[in-house]
Design goal:
single chain; 98 residues; mainly alpha; Alpha-Beta Plaits; two-stranded antiparallel ribbon; 5 helices; signal
Length: 98
């Protein structure tokens, strides 16, 4: 029984992020920003779940764009950026979230 619990715990701790949000601070200490999360998700053609999180699987081709959108609003995305994302974020393009 303990082995099953440890295996489940290991799986849960190593599972990648399933949903993305724009946070006010990099350490997530002040919570997340609903308006920018929803706006950036829609802008990048992502899919929102019932908790208004942007589903990471829907963002795979546009993860860099989601992160860039959050950053342009002074926020930080909690999703890991795929290879090449850092280069795209260097561009100084301001994205307007409606």
């Amino acid at each position: 029984m303990l082995l099953n619990f440890l295996l489940l715990l290991t799986f849960l701790l190593t599972t990648p992020t399933l949903a993305c949000k724009c946070f006010h601070q990099p350490d997530h200490s002040t919570g997340w920003d609903l308006r920018n999360t929803v706006g950036c998700c829609r802008l990048t053609k992502g899919t929102l779940n019932a908790e208004n999180d942007c589903m990471a699987t829907s963002l795979e081709p546009t993860m860099a764009s989601f992160s860039k959108c959050c950053k342009s609003q002074g926020k930080v995305s909690d999703c890991g950026c795929p290879k090449g994302c850092a280069d795209e974020e260097k561009e100084d393009e301001h994205v307007v979230v409606e």
